[in-house]
Amino acid sequence: MHTEGRRWRPLEDTAIANHILREGSRNWGGLRRSQDYYLEGALLWLEAGQSYKFVAAASDSLGLAFREDGTTSDVVPGMAADKAGLAPGMKVEGVNGRKFSRERLQDAIADSVTKRQVEFLVLDGDTYRTFVVQYADGLKYRELTRDPNKPDLLMNILKPAAGAP
Questions:
Q1: Per the structure, how many domains does the chain have?
Q2: 124 and 71 in one domain?
Q3: Which of 5-9, 30-34, 36-40, 119-123 has the highest average model confidence (pLDDT)?
């Protein structure tokens, strides 16, 4: 069934107006939001996870952070992108000879294992420049490790509230 509710009513309303939505109504059903906060919440986390993977891959691998439009927002000193001369504020137009996109950047970083480099076409002011980033380690992601000297707060949150029957 097609519903238009998400176009005009935010997900937050399904939580705030929960008591109203439970009663239901046959009137204007296609224009009402359902109690879809569990499903939509999962989709929000999935989207956030994809964005994080992109940011983490570029940052942890090359030392670059990007805005949505492909402009570099940060360059980590001493990492591959910094050594190649990339700087914040440059607009990346292409990667490895193709138009820039998140997916193509991830592919280029993954391909660096065989190509031993990632090439960027950058608009710096009103000048196009090519930067060759010497990098051959593929995609890298942060790995979280627990500090054994601090309490394990996550396990306290996840433990069952009631004992087993």
A1: 2
A2: yes
A3: 119-123
